[in-house]
Amino acid sequence: MNEFSLETTNSFKDFLSQADLDRLSLTPISRKAHFVVENSSLNADSLAEKLAQISKLEYLKDFEIAPNAEKILSVKLICEYQCLPSKESTDNQLVLVSAWIPSEDEVSWIISQTGRIPIWKISSCTKIAEKISQSFGIGSDSLGMEEGDEFADINDDDIAEDENAAIIKFVSEIITKALADRATDIHIEPQKNSLTIRYRIDGNLLPVKLPENLTRFKDAIISRLKIMARLNISEKRRPQDGRINFVSKSGSDIDIRISSLPTMYGESISLRLLTQKSQPVTIADLGFMTEDQAKLEIPLSRPHGIILVTGPTGSGKSTTLTAFIRKLRNPEVRIITVEDPVEYEVEGVNQTQVQAEIGLTFSAVLRSVLRQDPDIIMVGEIRDRETADIAIRASLTGHLVLSTLHTNDASGALTRLIDMDIEPFLIASSVEMILAQRLVRKLCTCKQPAMLDSHYLESCLTSLGIKDDNKDFSNIHKAVGCPKCRSIGYYGRLGIFEILLASDALHDMIINRRTARDIRNAARKGGMRTLQECGWQLVKNSLTGLEEIMAYAHSDE
Ligand SMILES: [Zn+2]
Question: Which protein residues have their CB within 5 A of the ion that is ligand 1?
Answer without folding.
Answer: 444, 446, 482, 484-485
